[in-house]
Amino acid sequence: MKEIGCEEVLIAKMAELDGESTAISPDDVQAHFAVCEKCQLEFAGLRRVDQSFELHARREHNADLWSSVEERITAPTRAASWKPFGAFAVALVVFRIVEMSLENDPGWFFGLVPAVLAALFFVLLRENPFKVNTELILESHHG
Amino acid sequence: MDDATAIRRCRKGEQEVFRHLVEVYQRQAIAHATTILGNREDAQDAVQDAFVDAFRSLKSFDESRAFYPWFYVLLRNRCYKAAGRRHETENVEDVVLVAPRSGPTTEDTIALERALLSLDREDREIVTLKYLDGLSYEELAERLQIPRGTVMSRLFYARRKLHAKLEGKS
Questions:
Q1: Is B147 left (phi over 0), alpha (psi -120 to 50) or beta?
Q2: What is the pTM assigned to this prediction?
């Protein structure tokens, strides 16, 4: 008979109890078990864990996640939002070309055009540039 | 509507059909995530993230498989990622993993709950999937992405630790 250790036997015995096959034959397990008091004792303890679970079920919790999931799956992804950046860059380049091509001073209001473009950019992105992110957490706090 | 039909329609661009999958599996998913994270609030966040991941990965879903085991892998990835960032629950009393089924005393339920919560996440996960969901070793291997032999030994050591906790030995 092949020599097998207590842990191997217990693992096989529990698997057997779960209705699963193992590499160790049931005869070898039984032979070890018949003479090993330590294994018999531990097996009885592990059976008590089984019995404890037999009296219980998994508790399920009510929730309605659809609205928040829907909001996220229908929102455009960041990867797809390069277009406003491109449009902003093109607008700035056009502004600069126009500015350089002018022979006369167009007036103080002309200098406000980049600021207006930037404001439009944030409106387009639906972002508030002055918003403070209160959810930022320093990594070191989690130590 | 069955899951396969819902998935097929989602793939064709009917986003609102994904609602079927969320509504069918959210309770189960939150229970599983709560088991791993030990915190219902974090669990709910992880489940939302996992549903979004699932929606975005539906194209790679193999229709010959069931939805939930596939989703579970995404969910546990989210849970372990969140677990790395956050602390275990501070208020153990708020977390309820098990519900009495056939006449245990309140003390039995509390003892089991506390013993489970004192285990490592991975031990708690495998033990509850085995006992509370009745998964086979093959199914556990699929959910946990480990070989069947590892399931066998990991489950044994987790049971042993749980027994020690229940007996108040550690």
A1: beta
A2: 0.74
